[in-house]
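queue> pop job 88
queue> type: inverse folding (structure -> sequence)
queue> payload:
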């Protein structure tokens, strides 16, 4: 039994004359073995009795006896080979959905390859001639496919070997000289490679579309979260006002809350609808990407070329570039509710107007520091990057592109290209200053005009009491009292830049309808010292919530 499980290879049991497994193996005097009938026939047709392998010549024809040991080994080998073949056939039987062998009779085995020249699919056993016979080795083998007849020209019954670029279809050689003789042709392989590359690009484009929509979902979800925070703050503010009133305002309080929540529900529903639509598009795109990926990996040239046109074009989807879900604006909601109450509530409404706006924008406070690479050589920055004032001596600084060369300006290090941000600057002791934001591409050399069309949104103080919004032309501002601390708030998407008197909790000025397309930076100018009257620094200070 051990010998049967460890049989030598088939090569050791081959007769060197017939090149097949021994039949009645015999040993001649030189020690070599042959089939009995093979060696007899060999000696029958030759004048000499010589060994076909070593060429040893025997004077008389040797008497032949069967080599019983080799005969037994050959028998065991044949039996084992038959068992292996039977086991292999059972394991390779074609399952439903698999391509069966066209040559097998009875139970069909699973096809291993299909031949485009023979138009036949072969199992492992019947494929062997294509792997060994020299004339069959030239045939084109592919992974097994059904309907090989579909690869033949229906008109000329010839293999489809060319691609007509004029008609965008696969044709045979006769088509190229008859029906399509004036057209442009390329081999199937060439068009296959080209279309496969195009499919790769299409797959990448689909993946990019999917990624953009996933990012849009994140933006919408973040927008919903911001909206919910705004709604929560607005409700809390309303409760703070209305709970301080008597029972006569309970109805007004309930109406106020219901209105806020209804608005928030509407915003969330819109966001959910957008997300659902985006998820549906992603599902369709992922399905299409899977189809493209599967097709792009196919080695079946004809199938790819016949299917590629329907997959190259992207499915119809919405252009989401301009679609956004913004948090609902609750500006004036509380004011309208309070306005409906008795005159006795006027003080509470005033408090709401004063504190509410500033509290909301202070939620977006950021840490701003000054950028020494942009400072004018006459300016002096403190080590922490929080203060700037004008010096008495011009410093020797490299004139790099980022630096202001002629005007006393310096930018913040931090850039902002989305969302909202807020910072505060202390102006105590200043008689002249300029504050605001500027876009990245502003002119920093030679003459500078501070106005929105040139990339600046700023306010200034001149001659101790002349406040202006630098709107080009400037807008003179009438303030009840000189602000000691100014807050600067920017809503990038809304196109809004607002300036607040922090101590008075009052709005100084707003630039509205701005169109931001670049990074924004905070900009500061402590202005000339004015003979010492304006020597105090501008100080970027921490933001603390107003009480």
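queue> result:
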């Amino acid at each position: 039994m051990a010998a049967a499980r460890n049989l030598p290879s088939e090569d050791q049991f081959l007769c060197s004359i017939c090149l097949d497994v021994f039949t009645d193996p015999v040993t001649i005097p030189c020690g070599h073995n042959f089939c009995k009938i093979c060696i007899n026939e060999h000696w029958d047709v030759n004048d000499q009795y010589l060994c076909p392998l070593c060429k040893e010549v025997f004077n008389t024809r040797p008497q032949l006896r069967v080599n019983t040991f080799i005969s037994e080994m050959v028998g065991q080998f044949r039996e084992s080979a038959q068992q292996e073949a039977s086991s292999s056939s059972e394991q390779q039987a074609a399952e439903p959905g698999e391509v069966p062998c066209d040559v097998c009779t009875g139970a069909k085995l699973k096809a291993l390859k299909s031949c485009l020249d023979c138009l036949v699919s072969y199992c492992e056993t019947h494929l062997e001639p294509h792997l060994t016979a020299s004339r069959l080795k030239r045939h084109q083998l592919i992974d097994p496919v059904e309907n090989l007849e579909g690869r033949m020209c229906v008109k000329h019954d010839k293999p489809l070997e060319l691609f007509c670029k004029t008609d965008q279809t696969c044709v045979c050689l006769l088509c190229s000289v008859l029906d399509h003789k004036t057209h442009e042709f390329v081999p199937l392989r060439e068009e296959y490679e080209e279309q496969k590359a195009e499919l790769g690009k299409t797959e990448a484009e689909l993946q990019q579309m999917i990624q953009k929509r996933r990012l849009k979902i994140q933006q919408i979800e973040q927008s919903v979260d911001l909206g919910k925070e705004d709604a929560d703050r607005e409700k809390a503010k309303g409760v703070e006002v209305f709970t301080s009133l008597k029972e006569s305002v309970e109805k007004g309080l309930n109406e106020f809350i219901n209105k806020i929540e209804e608005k928030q529900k509407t915003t969330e529903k819109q966001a959910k609808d957008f997300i659902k639509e985006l998820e549906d598009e992603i599902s369709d795109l992922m399905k299409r990407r899977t189809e493209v990926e599967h097709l792009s990996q196919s080695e079946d040239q004809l199938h790819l070329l016949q299917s590629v046109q329907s997959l190259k074009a992207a499915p119809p989807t919405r252009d989401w570039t301009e679609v956004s879900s913004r948090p609902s604006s609750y500006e004036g909601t509380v004011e309208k509710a309070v306005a409906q109450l008795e005159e006795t509530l006027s003080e509470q409404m005033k408090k709401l107007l004063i504190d509410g706006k500033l509290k909301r924008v202070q939620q977006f406070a950021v840490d701003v520091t000054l950028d020494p690479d942009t400072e004018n050589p006459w300016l002096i920055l403190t080590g922490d990057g929080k203060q700037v004032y004008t010096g008495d001596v011009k410093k020797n600084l490299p004139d790099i592109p980022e630096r202001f060369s002629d005007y006393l300006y310096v930018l913040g290090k931090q850039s902002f290209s989305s969302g909202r941000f807020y910072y505060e600057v202390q102006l105590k002791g200043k008689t002249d200053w300029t504050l605001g934001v500027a876009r990245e591409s502003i002119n920093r050399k030679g003459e500078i005009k501070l106005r929105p069309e040139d990339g600046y949104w700023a306010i200034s103080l001149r001659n101790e009491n002349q406040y202006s919004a630098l709107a080009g032309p400037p807008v003179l501002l009438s303030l009840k009292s000189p602000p000691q601390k100014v807050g600067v708030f920017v809503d990038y998407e809304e196109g809004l830049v607002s300036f607040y008197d922090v101590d008075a909790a009052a709005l100084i000025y707003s630039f509205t309808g701005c169109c931001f397309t670049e990074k924004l930076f905070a900009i500061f100018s402590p202005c000339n010292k004015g003979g010492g009257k304006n020597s105090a620094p501008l100080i970027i200070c921490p933001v603390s919530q107003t009480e």
